[in-house]
Amino acid sequence: MKRLYFIAPDVPAAKRVVDELLLARIEERHIHVIAKEGTPLEDLPAASLWQQSDLAHAMERGLALGGATGALAGLVAISLPESLVLGGGAILLATTLAGAGVGSWAASFQALNIPNVHLQQFQKEVEQGRILMLVDVPKARVDDIRRLIHRTHREIADRGIEKTIPPFP
């Protein structure tokens, strides 16, 4: 999947684009809209905390760092003479999994208040009242969807493609 970014001048234009995307068989769960705080989005699919914060990236980093720390702690634990009775492999596995879980959990708390780094470039336009649209499409359909929007909605600004989207949405 690739994430496409579009800027609509207002809510009615964003609604027309969403309708066009739905007709093009892009599921509503793959369309996310971000607007200035207080803007009534009516029935537009508002972006969740998952899309607006750095939660996914932080959880990935926390998982990796916590897992590595847990594995290191497990290696230290199995090097102790008392650990022979408990079984070294089980200790290593348990500490690695526990570290990964705790790292991911702790990182998620930190990331809830950090804006998504990919959205910072659009902040000024959103504050001016424009509507940011995030559309997740299969790689094979990227060019088709971009052409469709360009052809039928000249008022919509194409703001590019994010190479990878978080694996969890």
What CATH architecture of the largest domain do you see? 2-Layer Sandwich
Task: Please indicate the percent range of residues in DSSP E strands (runs of 2 or more).
Answer: 5-15%
The coarse silhouette is elongated
How helical, in percent, are the residues?
A: 40-55%
Measure the end-to-end span.
11 Å
Strand count, sense and closure of the main sheet?
A: 4 strands, antiparallel
Count of all domains:
2
Tell me the number of helical segments per DSSP (H or I, 4 or more residues long).
6
**Compute the gyration radius: what is it?**
22 Å
Spell out the helices and strands N to C.
EHEHHHHEHE
Could you name the ranges where pLDDT drops below 50 across 5 or more consecutive residues? none
The CATH topology assignment of the largest domain is Alpha-Beta Plaits
Number of strands: 4
Walkthrough of the structure:
The chain is an alpha+beta fold and 169 residues long. It has helices spanning 11-23, 49-52, 55-79, 88-111, 123-127, 142-152, and strands spanning 2-8, 31-34, 131-137, 157-162. Strands 2-3-1-4 form a four-stranded antiparallel sheet. The longest helix is centred in the middle third of the chain and has 25 residues, at 55-79. The protein is elongated, with a radius of gyration of 22 Å.
